[in-house]
Write a structure and sequence with these properties.
alpha/beta; 11 helices; globular; two-stranded antiparallel ribbon; about 260 residues; 2 domains
Amino acid sequence: MIFDLEDSVPTSEKERARECVSRVVRSDPNTAGCEIHVRVNRGDAGYDRADLEAAVVSAVAGIRLPKVESSEDVQKADQVISDLESERGLSPGSVRVYPTIESASAVLASSDIAGACDRIDALVFGPADFAVSVGVYQPSFESALVGRSMLVLASSAAGLGRPIDGAFLDLDDSDLLRQHCDRVCELGFGGKSAIHPRQVSVINQAFTPSPPDIERARNVLEIADSDTSVGVVEGAYIDAPVIAQARAIVEFSERIESREG
């Protein structure tokens, strides 16, 4: 559950929004098992100190850093967050960060950004701002294909979780939303932001392994003698990479079941 202090808030309402978020996250809110994240504002001198002060509390699991351009951007925010954790008695590194890549220059620097600090969980792709940065006036999935793929490679090389795709803005086209989810999932993304509750079920279905996929993965693991085994399952050749993929599917499905429980 992301509390947004950035683009969805008019400039005249920034201070009031910050006060509202600060009050809510300090009141031990009932979030039905959701992690709380806060998306902060970026100014010319870096990320808004007042936003970070409002967000770095025990109830907040993550900070969304928009418009990251370099590893230095993340490191400056990391230092402020570390200072606030220390001042407030929070465990070092307990508040995670999610840098959002929204420009051509940021995509090209994504490998450096991914390794900027130890508190990064995943990179986030911002397709709308990315389209503006590369001069695409009628964005399509293909126009951002390379940008998304580079985030997948940077994330994997840095040992991060799979990247998160940005929000789909058309609330009425659930079919196209599902298509976008399926395609970014195939690229290696692990999730997608939602901007309305009606999108959540579509996104969850797209990124959750299907029952047949889970069953096949379990079958692969059951007959595999070791990580280097070779054989055939349901007519398909399996070897170590296939076994590793099966293990990842089973572990991911178990994590989902645990969260739902």
